[in-house]
Amino acid sequence: MRDAMARADVGDDVFGEDPTVNALEDKAAEILGMEAGVFVPSGTQSNLIGIMAHCQRGDEYLVGQLAHTYKWEGGGAAVLGSIQPQPVEMRSDGTMDLELLASYVKTQPSLNHFAHSKLLALENTHDGQALPSDYVSEAQALARDRGLSLHLDGARLFNAAVDQCVAPSRIAAGYDTVSVCLSKGLGAPVGSVLVGRADLIQEARRWRKMVGGGMRQAGIIAAAGIYALDHHVDRLADDHRRAVELADRLDRIERVAVVNRATNMVFVEVDLDPDQADGFNDVLGSVGVVVRGGPRYRLVIHLDIDDAGIATAAEAFAQAVASL
Fold this sequence. Notes:
Layout: H1 2-6, H2 19-31, E1 36-40, H3 43-54, E2 59-64, H4 68-71, H5 76-81, E3 84-88, H6 98-104, E4 116-123, H7 133-145, E5 149-154, H8 157-164, H9 168-172, E6 177-181, E7 192-196, H10 198-210, H11 219-231, H12 236-251, E8 256-262, E9 265-270, H13 277-286, E10 296-300, H14 307-322
Parallel strand pairs: 2-3, 2-4, 4-5, 5-6
Antiparallel strand pairs: 1-7, 6-7, 8-9, 9-10
Helix pairs in contact: 2-11, 3-10, 12-14, 13-14
C-alpha cells in the first residue's frame, strides 16, 4: 500500500484533475453499483455532505438514536446544515420498529410548524451487526412510500457484505447515497467515499468544498484506498473468524461475559467494582492491550491483528482478572 502511495499520479483534486482520486471515485461507484462518487477525508464528513445534499435548512432526517450519524458525529447536520435530526428508538441489532418510524415522518405541506421529513438514514453494520436484508427492503419501501430519500452510513459495508456472502453492491442497493470507509477494516490510513446518484454527488462535492474537504494532490492517499479495495475486502473474513475465536476465549474467563459478537467486533462486560476499572485497564496496558472505559469494552479486530494478537488479548484479560 505504501509503495502504491509513493508511485501515485497526482493532480489538483479541487479541479477534478487528480487521476488517482478520479480512479478511486469511479472504482468505488462501480463496486457499489452507483453512478458517481466523491472522495473525502473522513466518514463523518462523508455522512455530513451526504445528508446536506439531500436536505435544506429546516428539513429533517430520521435516524436511529444510537446511529453514528446522530450520536457520534458532533451534531454536524444540525450545526452546519440547519437540518434537524429526528431520532428514532433503535434496537440493539441496529433495526428500528418500522411502525414507530412511520409515525415520526412529517411530510404534509400544511404542517408548517413541523420540520419536513426528507431523508431516512440507516447504518450497516451497527456495532458490527449486519442489517437483515428483509428489514432493509421493508425500511426502504416505507421511505419511498412516504417520499423520503435514503442514505446509508456504510462505514463497514464491506464487513456486512462478507458476513452475508453477497456482493457489496447488494448491500448498497436501494439507497440514493452510501458512505463507505476505507480506513477501518480495509486498512487505508485515511479516507471515505460517498457514492450515489450523480446529481446528489455533485451537490455533495459543493458541500465538501464548503466544509473544508477540498484537497489538492490527494492521489497519494487515494492510492491507498484503491489498494484497499483491490486487496483487503475478501480478507475481512479473517477478522470475522478471529472475532469468533476471541469471543470464545474471553467467554471462558471468570468474571468476563461476552455480551455480543458480530462480524469483527466483540463486546464484553467485566465484573468490576466502579473503583477497579482504572487498575484493570492498567494491567491490560502493561502487557500491550490498550483499552478505554470499562466495565463494558468494545474489541475490534482489523488487519493489524493476527492470530497471535488474539491470544495475547485473551491472555491479557485473564491476567487482569486475576489481579483483581
